[in-house]
Design goal:
By secondary structure, the chain is α+β, with helices and mostly antiparallel strands. It contains one helix and eleven strands; from the N terminus they run E-E-E-E-E-E-E-H-E-E-E-E. The longest helix is centred in the middle third of the chain and has 35 residues. The chain starts with 7 loop residues before the first strand and ends in a 14-residue tail after the last strand.
Length: 199
């Protein structure tokens, strides 16, 4: 579908990728409009399909030059291969997440948001690496397990097998993906959950 033929369209984001997290999340409905005669700007979030690609991609424009348009996911470490303007289906201007409609900023503001997210991610990773040994030492000690929580386990059948989710109230605090024997426990809940007690 060429961008000239699109005036406005809703796209469901059902992939499992996290390349645009937290700007976009799985389950978001995207409001995409064609550029028409408008200029593609650095900072815009665009829906495109590159040469030879089977599926469409949603990433942010980080550069526009004579060789092509450079895009990059807000959560990715590096840029994508250059694409032609003809590969761009449209610009994401807003998303629907649950009952909320959220504006997606482009241009200079969008670029600043993307840079802030990368700085925040780098800072979080640095702090995480510093605290990682302490966190796991405390979790292994079990000193916080005297606290009791009412949890429940939900099971979902997937093509690969059974996926299990551990819930605290309505919040998913751990998952065991289909085909895996390992639980992925969200921080800080490993401090309070004995993984060996989980199925």
């Amino acid at each position: 579908m060429m961008k000239e033929h699109i005036s406005s369209h809703q796209y469901g984001l059902y992939g499992t990728g996290i390349s645009m997290f937290p700007t976009l999340r799985v389950g978001d409905s995207l409001n995409v409009i064609a550029y028409g005669d408008r200029k593609i700007c650095t900072g815009d979030v665009v829906l495109f399909r590159g040469s030879g690609q089977e599926h469409s991609v949603v990433h942010r424009v980080i550069a526009v030059n004579p060789d092509g348009i450079i895009t990059q996911g807000d959560n990715n470490a590096g840029p994508d291969e250059p694409i032609l303007s003809e590969s761009i289906i449209g610009c994401v201007i807003s998303i629907r997440r649950g009952n909320r409609t959220l504006k997606i900023h482009g241009g200079k503001r969008g670029l600043l948001i993307a840079k802030f997210l990368r700085i925040k991610k780098a800072f979080s990773l640095k702090i995480s690496r510093m605290l990682h040994p302490i966190y796991h030492a405390l979790a292994d000690s079990g000193i916080f397990r005297i606290m009791r929580f009412e949890t429940q386990i939900l099971c979902f059948e997937r093509p690969e097998g059974t996926e299990m989710q551990l819930l605290l109230g309505k919040r998913v605090i751990a998952k065991r993906h289909a085909g895996s024997n390992e639980w992925k426990i969200r921080r800080p809940f490993r401090l309070f959950i004995d993984e060996t007690s989980l199925p």
